[in-house]
Amino acid sequence: MALSLASSLIRCGTFDAANIACSYVSWCQSKPPDIGNATRNALTIGIGKRLSSNWHHELNDVEKEEITSRSIK
Question: pTM for the complete prediction?
Fold first, then answer.
């Protein structure tokens, strides 16, 4: 999860909450070996779609904001 944050910060050059949220959701969907139930639930409930590994190029800003609003409540 920390690497997802670092990757987003490097990719954007700044703190972008929507990009970070999508990065976290993508990380969660990659089935990491050590993720708690609360974290998994927070990052998957209401998402309704699987993000590809190339999500940062495929999603527009509106789609990123939608994922952010569904994953961070």
Answer: 0.74
